Amino acid sequence: MAFSSSSPSHSTHQGVVYALLAAALFGASTPFAKTLVGQVAPVTLAGILYLGSGLGLLACFLVRAVLTRNTKDKPATLTTADLPWLAGAIAFGGIAGPVLLMFGLTLTPASSASLLLNIEGVLTAMLAWFVFKENFDRRIFIGMLLIVAAGILLSWEQVPKLGVPWGAIAIVGACLCWGIDNNLTRKVSASDALQIAALKGLVAGSVNLAIAMALGYTLPSVSIALNAGFVGFCGYGLSLVMFVLALRHLGTARTGAYFSAAPFVGAVISLFMLGDIPGLLFWLAAALMAAGIWLHLTENHEHDHEHEPLLHTHVHSHDAHHQHTHDDSWDGKEPHVHTHQHLPLRHAHPHYPDIHHRHDHS
């Protein structure tokens, strides 16, 4: 079958935009969350951030449902088979991760904390490569090594002040939780991103607040809670919607790599907003992380590959990967949503491990 590379390339570009938007939103939230640390207990703050995310996205979900009630093409909703993956993602990414991050922020300058969050991309990729068997090459591996080296430099910078860098350890622990979360979320990324992110926020926020209440912590003032909720809606909610969409187009490791831009956004905001004064190690770490991200941004992966038969549901247009007929009446509008069957196909073009390219590399 003949193949035109324009459609997959467009899909990849969409994924990059989604990933960078997710990175910018999340990166900006870190210094703003830092201003709330000290006013609110870490576990309480994590709960409010996620609950603000969930409630905001729930409102968006309801508005969308009203606006699209008379249309045929509805987003691909979660299925029963998706629920175990989503539950695991919420436990690691929505409960354990935020609590560790809030604790780490109490001990770590916001600029350094922002750059340390690059470790999430590394741990996400390691899990994707070695546990979930996503492909990678030498260029991607070297880029991740540079990011790891930068994280080590930032951790080392804390040793003279703190002895054991507990703040850095807590933030790296949060990154590990989010790395697990990202890989589990990839399993359900073809489903409605807004529904996934809203459920994560509502469940994680409720659980974290319940834990805070059980530990005897009190709720902050209404103004602080509203501020934290808004930060959570933008930095956790909208960011997660963009991240799930990027997973759909790029796969886990590549999305994590693009998401590594998030800490640079946070670091820049921290320097101007909070008055952090970075030292030499900070700038060395920034240079290493920039080099690592550049290697990922300039990757080109192309080879002859085979698509096996696949039945699934997601938003799509009739590109080279979606040459199917419609059993029911179709008004010709694209993109649209319905369950469709992919037939066996072999071709070559630039691609990332998106929902259609999760093949082995021998």
Instruction: Give the ordered list of helices and strands.
Output: HHHHHHHHHHHHHEEEE
Main sheet strand line-up: 1-4
Q: How is the biggest beta sheet arranged? A: 2 strands, antiparallel
Find the structural class using helix and strand composition: mainly alpha
Helix content: 55-70%
Radius of gyration: 21 Å
How far do the termini sit from each other? 23 Å
- The number of E-state strands comes to 4
Count of alpha/pi helices: 13
Strand content bin? 5-15%
Which assembly state applies to the chains in this document? single chain
Give the secondary structure arrangement, pairings included.
Blueprint: H1 6-36, H2 42-67, H3 83-105, H4 110-116, H5 119-130, H6 138-157, H7 159-162, H8 166-186, H9 193-214, H10 222-250, H11 252-259, H12 262-273, H13 280-297, E1 302-307, E2 310-316, E3 336-342, E4 345-350
Antiparallel strand pairs: 1-4, 2-3
Helix pairs in contact: 1-4, 1-10, 1-11, 1-12, 2-3, 2-9, 2-10, 3-8, 3-9, 4-6, 4-12, 5-6, 5-8, 5-11, 6-13, 9-10, 10-11
